[in-house]
Write a structure and sequence with these properties.
Keywords: Coiled coil, Membrane, Transmembrane, Transmembrane helix. The chain has 304 residues and is of the alpha+beta class. The protein contains nine helices and ten strands. 34% of the residues lie in helices and 23% in strands. The strands form two sheets. The chain has an eight-stranded antiparallel sheet with strand order 3-4-5-6-10-9-8-7, with helices on both faces. The two termini are 33 Å apart.
C-alpha cells in the first residue's frame, strides 16, 4: 500500500460527514510519499484529528461523552443541558467504539479529558442546547482549546482503528520507532499555532515506519510539516504538480524547492544525511509562504 493511500484513509473521518457543523475546522494538508517514479502530491482534508471530528454529534447539543453516565452522570443531566435521548444514544455508541479502539490506560486518560470538557459545555450551554463560548473566562477558553489538542491522538486512533489498515501514533510513540530525532520547529511565522501533530504508519507492513505529520494554522492559512525516515538506497523526489523545481545546497543540506505557481502552495524538501548512528531523514514543509520562510522553518527543526 503506498503511503498516499494510507494518509487518505487515516484522515477520512466522521468530520467529513459533519462538514457543515457549526465551528468545524477544516485543515488542508499536503500529504506526500515521494519515491522515484511515484511523485504525487494532492491536497487532503485533515478534518478530524480533533475531538470535534469524532465526539460531537452532527446536530443539536454538542456534548462530549463516553460510556455516557460516567461523563454526564445520567441521561437526565444531558437532556437538561439541551441534549436529547437520541443524541445520548449516539454518544454511547461512540464511547463503545472508543473502548474497542483504545487500551485501558488510553481510555482512562480520554475519559478524564471528556469529563473536563463536559463541565465546560455545561457552563456554555444556552436554552436549546447552543454552546456559547463567551460564557467562559479567558483562562477557561484557553484550557478548553488546549483540551481539544490533547484529545487529538485519541480521536485519531478511534477513527482509524475500526476499518483502516493504518495506525495513528502520538509523536512520543512515533519517536520510539524512528532512527532520527523528531522535533517541532523552533520557528514558525508570527501568528501560526500548532493544530495537530501525529505519526501515521501502515498497520499491515512489518517494516513500516511512521511519517510525522504536523500542521500549523493561522486563520485559513496553514503550514504542513512532514518528517520521514529515509532507508539506505531510497530515492526521494518532489511532486510533479510543481511548475518549477530548483535543487541547491542550504548550509550542508541537499534541498529541493517546488514552486506551485499563482495561488498554490510551494514546498521545500530538505534531506538530513545519516550520521552518528542516526538514519537519514527528510523534512518537507509546504505552505503559501516565501521560499526563505520555508527554509527557515526546516532549518529550525534541524538545528536542535
Amino acid at each position: 500500500m503506498d503511503f498516499e493511500k494510507q494518509i487518505r484513509q487515516s484522515l477520512k473521518t466522521e468530520a467529513e460527514k459533519a462538514s457543515g457543523t457549526e465551528g468545524m475546522k477544516e485543515k488542508v494538508m499536503n500529504n506526500i510519499f515521494l519515491k522515484k517514479g511515484r511523485t504525487r502530491m494532492k491536497k487532503r482534508l485533515l478534518a478530524g484529528i480533533m475531538a470535534t471530528a469524532i465526539l460531537i454529534p452532527t446536530a443539536g447539543f454538542a456534548g462530549y461523552s463516553y460510556l455516557s453516565d460516567r461523563i454526564f452522570g445520567s441521561q437526565d443531566n444531558f437532556i437538561s443541558q439541551g441534549g436529547s435521548g437520541a443524541e445520548y444514544a449516539h454518544i454511547e455508541e461512540k464511547l463503545t467504539q472508543a473502548k474497542r479502539a483504545l487500551n485501558e490506560k488510553e481510555y482512562a486518560e480520554l475519559e478524564q479529558l471528556l469529563k473536563e470538557i463536559a463541565r465546560y459545555h455545561a457552563k456554555m450551554a444556552e436554552p436549546g442546547g447552543k454552546l456559547n463560548v463567551d460564557r467562559l473566562t479567558k483562562e477557561e477558553k484557553q484550557r478548553y482549546n488546549q483540551l481539544e489538542k490533547e484529545m487529538e491522538p485519541y480521536a485519531a486512533k478511534i477513527t482509524v482503528k475500526e476499518d483502516n489498515p493504518v495506525d495513528i501514533l502520538t509523536i512520543e510513540e512515533s519517536q520510539k520507532l524512528l532512527s532520527f530525532p523528531v522535533h517541532h520547529p523552533s520557528y514558525v511565522p508570527e501568528g501560526y499555532t500548532l493544530g495537530s501533530a501525529v505519526g501515521v504508519m501502515d498497520a499491515n507492513a512489518k517494516k513500516s515506519k511512521p511519517v510525522i505529520n504536523m500542521y500549523y494554522e493561522h486563520g485559513d492559512a496553514g503550514i504542513g510539516i512532514f518528517q520521514q525516515e529515509i532507508r539506505a538506497g531510497e530515492q526521494v523526489g518532489m511532486p510533479d504538480e510543481y511548475e518549477r523545481i530548483q535543487k541547491y545546497k542550504l548550509e550542508s543540506y541537499e534541498v529541493t524547492f517546488g514552486q506551485g505557481g499563482s495561488d498554490k502552495e510551494d514546498g521545500l524538501s530538505l534531506v538530513v544525511p545519516a550520521q552518528g548512528g542516526k538514519s537519514a531523514y527528510r523534512i518537507y514543509v509546504a505552505g503559501k509562504l516565501p521560499q526563505a520562510e520555508l527554509e527557515k522553518i526546516a532549518l529550525s527543526i534541524v538545528h536542535q
